[in-house]
Amino acid sequence: MSDNQNASIEATPEQVLYANILAKGMLIGLIILFITFAIYAFGIMKPYIPLDQVSSLWTTNVGDYLHNANIKPGWAWVGMLQYGDFLNFIGIAVLAGVTIVCYIGIIPSLLRSKDTIFVIIAILEVIVLSVAASGILGAGGH
Length: 142
Hints:
By secondary structure, the chain is an all-alpha fold. It has a domain at 12-97. The chain contains seven helices and no strands.
């Protein structure tokens, strides 16, 4: 192989930084999921939906489930973190949001290397993912 081909195989500093942030974020999210599930499973915190009613709600679609359980869609779960079954959402939110953190993390490196197009793309990714996660547009499953 020529030197040019070998150079293209190596990851860029931004790719390595993105991967490092992603790995740490995934690990943090996973640890949070294990801890919050243990809190729920061992009954350390009272669940919003009693365990004897959970299976009856599983047979319904999402809209009926939310209605029957009197749960508001979207980010309303943040106000219900005092319940063990909603505590699990913290880890899910961390895992879902780690990509945004990755893009934010590489922007300074892209600015230093004067990769203007990639800076714009990274900023747009942060904006699009943040708007989608926020539920501002009212679209999607939230």
